[in-house]
Write a structure and sequence with these properties.
mainly alpha, 2 helices
Length: 78
């Protein structure tokens, strides 16, 4: 009861073939293979790219911030 026999799998395969047809399944497998090939080609192109060194950015110091006088220790109203 728990496992599927070969007859169950043959019936499932027959239903799938009837629903999708032989040409449709082979087209899907071809598209899958093209996608995998394209993915591998993209990965290979990333490895072969020559990385350019990062350009130097000159640092300019920021202007000093306006000083605010708010010393919590000088507030003795409590």
């Amino acid at each position: 009861m728990g496992s599927l026999s070969i007859w169950h799998w043959l019936i499932v395969a027959l239903i799938i073939m009837l629903l999708f047809g032989k040409g449709r399944i082979s087209d899907m497998m071809g598209d899958l293979a093209k996608g995998i090939t394209s993915f591998k080609k993209g990965l290979a192109e990333d490895d072969t790219k020559v990385s350019t060194p990062p350009r130097q950015v000159e640092a300019h110091p920021a202007p000093p911030a306006a000083e605010t006088v708010s010393d919590p220790s000088s507030d003795k109203s409590a």
